[in-house]
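This section describes the prediction task in plain terms. A model, or a person checking by hand, is given the sequence of a single protein chain and must write out its three-dimensional structure as a string of tokens. No templates, partner chains or ligands are provided. The sample shown here is typical of the held-out split.
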Amino acid sequence: MDVRLPDGTMIQNVPDDMTRDQLTQKLAFNGYDISKLATQDQMPQSTVKQDIQASIPGRVLQGMRDPIDQAAAMLPKGLEAITSLGGYAPNPVSKFLGEQASDVQNLNKQNETDYQTARQATGSQGVDVSRFIGNVASPVNLAAALRVAPALTTGAKIAQGVGIGTAAGALGGEADVNSPDYWTDKAKSAAIGGAIGGAIPAVVGGVSRMIQPQTNPKVVELLKQGITPTPGQILGGNAQKVEEKLQSLPLLGDAITSAKNKTLEEFNQAALNKTLAPIGQTVDTIGRDGVAQVKQKISDAYNNLLPKISFMPDQKFKQDYGQLQQLVTGLGEKEQSKFNSVMNDVFSKASPNGAMDGSTFKIAESKLSSEASKFTGSTDAYQKELGDALKQSLNLMRESLPRTNPQYGQDLQNINAAFANYARIRQAASSTATGAREGVFTPAQLAQAVRAMDKSAGKGASATGNALMQDLAEQGTNVLGSKVPDSGTAGRLALGAGAATAGATGTLIPSLAGLGAATLPYLGAGRDITAKILTQRPAEAAKLAAMLRQSSPLLAGAVPFAIQNK
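The expected answer:
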């Protein structure tokens, strides 16, 4: 072999069995200044073979052959058990197979000794990552892991991991083929491997979720609309329950409450702006002032459009209005007379053919709306039906405008859509429970208003998720509206006891300092940063997380083997 000295000198044709002292003597005999070797430790201690064996490719190759070596010893041992009927009928064939198993095991032990000696000689001791990579890439592991169908559920992944880990554990371990307890030891190794393999999917799943969080899609939608939930609301489940209970703590509890109020304000802001989205408007405040601004902006958009349009009874309006008049004949005589009186008054402002300009239509619309509202709130059934008939007349007139003013049809539809949204917001903000909050409504109150104002048959729009404002209401209710199922007394008592203990042991100030630090994810820029950390990752993170999840079977086969075989 050739040996390179620390100063770069190359010594050729050094015998493999030459000791360090012999090499030193040879160097001195040949005139080499051995004082250049400060200590004997600087003398080369590894052979070329050892350098190759301890190199990264060599260690990977060793890892790849590990399961093969173990299987090579286990196979004749298994055949020995079969041919000897479990040891009860030994014979020359079973004896031969047992000897073969022992020979293979001795070869494996010698190889392991040489491998560890090479690592020590080359200074490559420590965690052997390269060998583990080889264990993962071993043909035995690949054959086992890649032949199984991908598991879809967590339970199936765990069961799959148990199976692959059991096989890997059976190959690993320190069982001696010459021991009468060989199969017992193998069974123990298999059980340990199964336990480790079953744990792998859970661990891999947890790590992959850290790399690429599986964020609730409704959280993502809220964030897109400028609504930043608290950490507990983002994570949901137990995290949200704990956050609810933490509101009882000083400093931290106030920060959580403040963050939740801020989130609720952002939800209201998003709801008001969603209401105005059809007409391209926004508001910069919430509560009663915000609701009033929404109403005014819709009214302004309508008033600005009215001078440009006109009302002309078309064929569809005449047909629908005629059917309505037939229905009115079913009312009491007094209600019929009132309906006709109101409608005659409305159309008295029109031209002989029933046409009205925008200004005239607005006056007629205001008159009809006022009369309809007067009767719809009545407790008398006939008067309530009269009010509904008047309201339907108004709807028929409004619905005709896009047909008779096609150039402004889209603008009218947008205004009508905004007003329909506003009706839901108005009802949510007028809920008696919001009185103390001055018109600030919760997602649950918006959801109730959405359902209450769904006039589709059997509330089919709500049932199919297509009711106006339902998407935002459900996103908010799902993420922001969850509550602790119980009163939280036990949790709060435990937290209170911890605070009392901190005070009694003189650790109150550090505890308060810790609570102060814990408020950062709930205040100012910390809210946005925390939300991004919990929900956003680079595009490459999704690929990495997917690769990690897909590698679960490979790891389930390699990790138990690597742990038990070292």
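For orientation: DSSP finds 26 helices and four strands in the chain.
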